[in-house]
Design a protein that fits this description.
Layout lengths: L3 H13 L9 H4 L1 H12 L4 E5 L8 E7 L2 E7 L5 E5 L13 E4 L3 E2 L6 E2 L5 E3 L16 E7 L2 E5 L8 H11 L7 E11 L3 H8 L5 H4 L23 H10 L7 E2 L3 E6 L30 E6 L3 E5 L4 E10 L2 E11 L10 H26 L15 H18 L12
Helix pairs in contact: 1-9, 5-8, 5-9
Bound molecules: FE2/S2 (inorganic) cluster and fe (ii) ion (FE2).
């Protein structure tokens, strides 16, 4: 629970916000609220990290930083994937540098305390005989997987996960992500608050004008959770996909959404000409012509699985007006670069899209910083997922500070 002055301030800001409007300025600019977001939003939510195949063998690890918290995921000799705070229990040094690799044991570079692959402290030279190593293992974090995808939560008590798992697992089953490999990764530094990055990522109101490459294959007139008006043949598409064994109808929980939607007529992948960019598909159903399975988690990500690749977009807050956007592309593990795909063919549409979005986010931040900024109304027809994101955020803040959530209505236009 934040201290009383911050709690009072947040409570007053929440009360100021008109329903279905963007947030008061301080939520996009204020250093104290940014620290609150790191602790109470990113520190308490499930976050999509990537695929299990990035940490495939005993000893393989993935280390990254969430907010101010270095974490690591490590597969033990017993095959179990475990997560830890990557912070030494001696004096707190970060143990492994961010990145991927192999480690049979974890050796802190500062004073060489040594941990095994279950996080237990095994070596702590020069400590007294009575020192209790068993009380100084690495602090664990929660790890869950869904059909080859990996999620972490840093909170002692994470949000309920099972409903998300049970809905998403059958939707992802046809995409064979257990046989995918990371083919490309791109990191963008954006001068914008993480919430502006995510509001942008939750609507396609701007896509027709802002994303000419994406708009070739992506139905930029989509509404709601890719689920209703504006997509004439959606029911027919869903029925066809489900008849092929691919659960596709839109589902959502408090902090997640998933649905399969058709690409524009004649397009089978999110590429410049709508044809697959990878010769060895991940999804073999219907020759890989399966639209896009989109799933998204508040607060930070979305993913699109088309027949031939998967892309994951993730926003990681760095400072009140700085966010790191990480995009990862995955293809079938047997697809060979230069033979079955090219990096440019795979990345072009989403690279251009992410660069265009960065420019929009930065424009947005500059305008929001103005003395003249006041919260503005979302389009209920075209920004309902952005409304859903800010409502989720406002409700999360209200819960953390112990006040009633402001009255809102989640629109699915
Ligand atoms: S801080 Fe890790 S061994 Fe001292
Ligand atoms: Fe965009």
């Amino acid at each position: 629970m934040p201290d009383t002055p911050l709690r009072n301030r947040l409570s007053a800001l929440l009360a100021q916000r008109p329903p279905r409007h963007t947030l008061p300025q301080a939520f996009y600019t204020d250093p104290e609220i940014f620290e609150f977001d790191l602790r109470e939003i990113y520190g308490r939510s499930w976050l999509l990290i990537g695929l299990e195949t990035e940490i495939p063998d005993p000893g393989s690890y993935l280390a990254m930083t969430i907010g101010r918290s270095p974490i690591l995921l490590l597969r033990g000799q017993d095959g179990v994937l475990r997560g830890f705070f990557n912070t030494c229990r001696h004096r707190g040094a970060q143990i492994l540098a961010d990145g991927c690799g192999h480690a049979q044991r974890l050796l802190c570079p500062y004073h060489q305390w040594m941990y095994d692959d279950t996080g237990a402290l095994r070596g702590a030279g020069r400590m007294p005989r009575e020192f209790d190593k068993s009380a100084h293992g690495l602090n664990p974090i929660h790890v869950r997987t869904v059909a080859g995808t990996v999620y972490v939560c840093l909170a002692a008590e994470p949000p309920e996960f099972d409903a998300f798992h049970d809905h998403l697992a059958p939707m992802l089953a046809g995409h064979d992500l257990g046989n995918a490999k990371l083919a490309a990764e791109c990191t963008l530094f954006e001068r914008g608050n993480w919430k502006l990055v995510m509001e942008n990522a939750r609507e396609c109101y701007h896509c027709g004008a802002g994303h000419p490459e994406l708009a070739r294959s992506f139905p930029t007139d989509v509404r709601g959770n890719f689920s209703t008006a504006g997509m004439v043949d959606l029911p027919g598409f869903i029925a066809r996909m489900e008849a092929l064994g691919l659960p596709s109808a839109a589902v959502q929980g408090e902090w997640w959404q998933a649905s399969r939607f058709p690409l524009r007529d004649g397009n089978v992948s999110m590429t410049m000409d709508g044809t697959p960019c990878v010769a060895k598909p991940l999804c073999h159903v219907n020759g890989g012509d399966v639209g896009s399975l989109r799933w998204a988690l508040e607060p930070h990500c979305f993913a699109h699985a088309v027949g031939d690749f998967l892309i994951i977009f993730s926003a990681l807050p760095l400072a009140p007006q700085e966010t790191l956007v990480v995009a990862k592309w995955y293809v079938h593990k047997d697809a060979e670069e230069g033979v079955d795909y090219t990096r440019d063919g795979l990345m072009h549409v989403w690279n251009e899209t992410n660069l265009q979005d960065r420019a929009l986010v930065e424009l947005n931040q500059r305008g929001v910083n103005s003395l003249g900024y006041v919260p503005g109304p979302y389009s209920e027809a075209s920004e309902s997922l952005a409304i859903g994101f800010t409502d989720w955020y406002v409700n999360s803040v209200a819960r953390r500070i112990g006040v009633a959530a402001p009255a809102q209505k989640l629109v699915d236009a």
